[in-house]
Amino acid sequence: MSKKKWAVGAAGILMSLSLVACGESSKTVATTDGGKITQEQYYNKMKGTQQGKQELQQMILNKVLEHKYGDKVKESEVNSQLDKYKKQYGSQFSAMLQQQGMTESQLKDSIRDNLLLKQAVLDKTSFSNKDLEKQFKSYQPKVTVKAIVTKDKSTAETVISDLDNGQKWDTLAKKYSINSSNKNDGGKLPAFDNSNSTVDSSFKKASFKLKNGEYTKTPVKTKEGYQVIEMVNHPSKGSLNDHKAEVKDQLATQRMNDSDTLHNVVSKVLKDGDVHIEDKSLQNILSGYIDTPKN
């Protein structure tokens, strides 16, 4: 869940910052038979580490992003992305969280952080007509399909032959599909567009060629196996003006993966955020993003 230079670190590492600033530096964090550890000691130790500095950078950026773009990121959007992760990983979702050292709540926070940063990219980068027109060439609106997944090509060819002979799609899905999660629903999949990175590229290419009600006449080889695809709903692509918001969103997503673009966006956001570092020993923590104040 990293965001280039602005990586989401372990939550809470520098939460003592606010308490120290409020004059509660003597509060005890832990006690041992060798003595106690105060919040001030903990703070002074952590602020000198790279991990501690990265966490503070992230906290500062998130505060500014939340203030500027918080009303543009809805809870429903965060939950929607969380649900996609849960569907993608299925029974392995908890194991994935454990491997990443995260709780579900921390994952939600990370999703929100990324969506806030995406809003900043939309706001702080320009989208020329040339950029939009280029992206629109590869743009496809979200389609809904059904898929029957088989282990081998010959089984997929049998499915196609049975369909050609008038047998029902849903009946064949129950009989042949090895995808137990959706075979009883005819193999129906969540809607996807050209930017969806979780869908196999061969699968997307074959799907986008189909009209409503059509199915692939040759098996489509993917990492899951050999698939037969039926188009349920393929909306008309229309014109760029019909989908300008979606195209801009796709471009913004691409720019989120470019470190130079993110650096420039973060720099602009922090400069607009009127950030002041009160701890003199941390004055240079945002060096390279905003000018260091002269004392």
From TrEMBL:
GO cellular component terms? plasma membrane
Q: Which UniProt keywords apply?
A: Cell membrane, Isomerase, Lipoprotein, Membrane, Palmitate, Rotamase, Signal
Signal peptide range in chain numbering: 1-21
Q: PpiC domain spans which residues?
A: 140-233
Q: Which GO terms describe its biological process?
A: protein folding
This entry's Gene Ontology molecular function terms read:
peptidyl-prolyl cis-trans isomerase activity
Main subcellular localisation? membrane
Record has Isomerase as a keyword: yes
Catalysed reactions listed for this entry: [protein]-peptidylproline (omega=180) = [protein]-peptidylproline (omega=0)
Tell me the compartments it is located in. Answer: Cell membrane
Task: Give the E.C. number(s).
Answer: 5.2.1.8
UniProt membrane topology term = Lipid-anchor
**Principal EC category:** isomerase
InterPro entries, per database record: Foldase_PrsA, PPIase_dom_sf, PPIase_PpiC, PrsA_foldase, Trigger_fact/SurA_dom_sf
Keyword Lipoprotein part of the UniProt annotation: yes
What is its biological role? Plays a major role in protein secretion by helping the post-translocational extracellular folding of several secreted proteins.
Family, per the entry? Belongs to the PrsA family.
HAMAP family the UniProt entry points to: Foldase_PrsA (MF_01145)
Q: What is this protein called?
A: Foldase protein PrsA
- Read off the lineage from the record: Bacteria, Bacillati, Bacillota, Bacilli, Lactobacillales
